[in-house]
Design goal:
The chain is α+β, with helices and mostly antiparallel strands and about 70 residues long. The chain has 1 helix and 3 strands.
């Protein structure tokens, strides 16, 4: 039976789109690059959750795992 290690990653997914000014490299692409880089290191995305804290702020959290060597 394999052993696993885990990473909890807060994703920066807040996207403010101004209809007059569109970014060439939206934040969501940065998230994709970050997840792809972790995938290259052997991490597998196993879950995503939105968490709202008492102040009302909302965070998106990703849970990743990989087998321990």
């Amino acid at each position: 039976m394999g052993k696993w290690e885990y990473v909890v990653l807060v994703l920066k997914t807040k996207i403010n789109v101004n209809r007059y000014e569109r970014e060439k490299n939206p934040i969501i692409q940065n998230v994709q690059k970050e997840l792809n880089a972790l995938g290259e290191e052997g991490w597998e995305l196993v879950g995503v959750q939105n968490i709202r804290i008492e102040t009302g702020m909302l965070f998106t959290v990703a849970y990743l795992k990989r087998e321990k060597l």
